[in-house]
């Protein structure tokens, strides 16, 4: 009886691990899309109405999913406390990294957007944010492709691997 | 030590107690403030204690130290902010200027007294020992002042200043970027001059009766050399006209202000930081000629006020406003009527016949001396003897 319960636990654990991995692959493009949406809105706020960064960041997250919205609000809050935008962006990244399912490469893309943010004129800011959007879009497309391939694999592989272990033990 | 401190002659007047019995506790408090000031000075001033001018306790116009800390010091680079916050209470009272130059000591000014802060947190006049301002501190201060949004202050940077909350103004100097012959921006900012805002109210009251004829405020041109109180007078006139002056039989008027250099209203994020009265609309950072037309069409003002006219297009806009039945009050740089007649555009401005009052300001008997008030249309003098709008203590 105990053996049977143990085998079931192995199967469930392995399956859950597979589902979690599949979920992270599904969430990654969604989170990158949310970032892309917010950076796009930020560019509009800056280039169209020259809104100062704290308000522009807060305004840019309207309709943006968490945790990307949380990231932007954290940056806005730190700038309001007197921390330069570049440093605030990096700090928010370090603090909220765990809430995201992004790869190291994705983070490099996100953090690159914050370098020198708010230190130039409107035209330059627009150019920089447009570049950030392009890079985020590329990362999003890559993540989408990986999600299509790997999310399904992980969803089944967890259970299959669990079943294989159970068979070996039996 | 070279003494380069001068004591304004009438400072002591400001602390003369009123001898009325009913106000005795208030004066006891004032004297206590003075005595505590003396102690602070003895313990914090390393050199030249005797040269420190007496302070006016509870000045009406200077911001309190708490307000100064919130509106100005909190916007300086962290090392400078903590240095100034560490100074004993009273050290920054009535501060007028904070100057930061990359690679030079931090300088502060109160009246004619210029001093620095030593790294240990004491104030003194030996600049060699003064706390050095690093280029990084200047850059960081600008970032904090603009809330990391340089792009949002492009127009102000082009004009060489920023306006902070509270109406304090920050002058900037550095590498100027020119495009097509025009200043595009200032980058690599190396010097900052924070000028603490002080509101001086009531200076326009004495002049107001000379600007009114048959209960109507007449269009006026104020001619003044720099530092003669022109902007302060104009700001006070706006406040009086907007609030109304029952003693002069004047009801409050809708006043439109075109504040191209953000000096009159001291707008911070579009909100005037100086009190301009309840019926005043401000177009901040707006070119004067366009602003006058915009106000005329959009806000139906009874009076339009603007500072420092001088371009030909301003004259066209001015004539349009006056022909629309609006009173215009404005200023020009100059010594007197003859002086402005030597400049073609200003001669044309005076010759338009739109002004019914000319006012000449000078510093002859202190800042805000009205030398002459006349009607440019008839040449009739309205003021018989010079009028001093305020005492020297505000100079």
The main pleated sheet of chain B reads as:
9 strands, mixed
| Total separate domains of chain B | 2
Gap between N and C termini of chain B, in Å?
27 Å
Helix content of chain A: over 70%
Poorly predicted runs of 5 or more residues of chain A: none
Q: How far is it from the N-terminal to the C-terminal residue of chain A, by CA?
A: 13 Å
The whole-angstrom Rg of chain B is 23 Å
Q: Given the C-alpha coordinates, what overall shape of chain B results?
A: globular
| Share of residues in strands of chain B | 15-25%
Largest interface: A-B, 22 and 17 residues
- Please state the CA-atom Rg of chain A, rounded to the nearest Å: 21 Å
**CATH fold group of the largest domain in chain B:** Beta-Lactamase
Please describe the biggest sheet of chain A, giving its number of strands, its sense, and whether it closes into a barrel: none
Number of H- or I-type helical stretches of chain B = 11
Give the topology string of chain B: H per helix, E per strand. HHHEEEEHHEEEHEEEHEEHEHEHHEEEE
Task: Please name the CATH architecture of the largest domain in chain B.
Answer: 2-Layer Sandwich
Helical run tally of chain A: 6
Structure in words:
The complex is a heterodimer of chains A (about 170) and B (about 400). Chain A has about 170 residues and is mostly helical. Chain A has one domain. Chain A has helices at about 1-50, 55-60, 70-80, 85-95, 105-115, 120-170. Chain A is elongated and about 70 Å long. The model of chain A has no long low-confidence stretch (mean pLDDT about 85). Chain B has two domains: about 1-200, Beta-Lactamase (2-Layer Sandwich); about 210-395, P-loop containing nucleotide triphosphate hydrolases (Rossmann fold, 3-Layer(aba) Sandwich), CATH 3.40.50.300. Helices cover about 25% and strands about 25% of the residues of chain B. Chain B contains eleven helices and 18 strands. In chain B, helix 8 runs parallel beside helix 9. Chains A and B meet through helix 2, helix 4 and helix 6 of A and helix 4 of B.
